[in-house]
Design a protein that fits this description.
- This protein has helices at 13-33, 38-61; strands spanning 69-73, 77-82, 103-104, 113-115, 119-122, 136-140, 143-147, 154-156.
- The chain is α+β, with helices and mostly antiparallel strands.
- Strands 3-2-1-5 form a 4-stranded antiparallel β-sheet, with helices on one face. It has a 4-stranded antiparallel β-sheet with strand order 4-6-7-8, with helices on one face.
- The longest helix is centred in the N-terminal third of the chain and has 24 residues, at 38-61.
């Protein structure tokens, strides 16, 4: 009785090269279709959340003898604080929450936020205080949001309802 021949296990060099080539082609196609601008959209939603938080704080803490609350926006960060206070770099000298003091939106060396007025203040009803240009449109990279007059409604896009 002849001895059983040993079976060959594994892949040939040609099969491995073809698999690596197919994985490379699929990877290139996936990278080409990958969405861009996601960081700008996330920064815009973060700024929208900060404006809504400032409006909420104004409605819960505002009284006739206190100043309005709002948001102060710089080139790539924002601070939610009372109108009559300014905050130092560590925010140890103001009433702003540490979570919303000099909060950086994106780590970029260039300015990413474009805004007409650098601050938006709200009264106890959540309405933007007069003195600023409204509707206030804020651009973050390629995305934008608008703070509407009278209501202080914050929405994505360039127009108010």
């Amino acid at each position: 009785m002849p001895a059983a021949s040993p079976k060959n296990h594994g892949f040939t060099l040609m099969e491995l090269v073809m698999i690596i080539l197919l994985i490379g082609i699929i990877s290139v196609a996936a990278v080409a279709k990958w969405p861009t601008g996601m960081a700008d959209g996330a920064a815009l939603r973060e700024l929208k959340r900060g404006i809504r938080y400032a409006q909420h704080i104004a409605m819960t803490r505002y009284s006739n003898d206190a100043s309005a609350w709002g948001i102060f926006i710089s080139s790539n960060s924002y601070t939610v604080r009372p109108q009559n206070e300014s905050c130092n770099a560590t925010c140890s000298d103001c009433s702003a929450s540490q979570d919303f003091c000099h909060r950086t939106l994106l780590d970029r060396s260039t300015d990413i936020i474009t805004i007409t007025d650098s601050s938006i203040w709200f009264n106890g009803l959540g309405e933007p205080l007069s003195g600023a240009v409204f509707p206030q449109t804020i651009s973050v990279g390629s995305e934008s949001l608008t703070v509407c007059p009278q209501t202080g409604y914050v929405m994505e896009g360039n127009t108010c309802p």
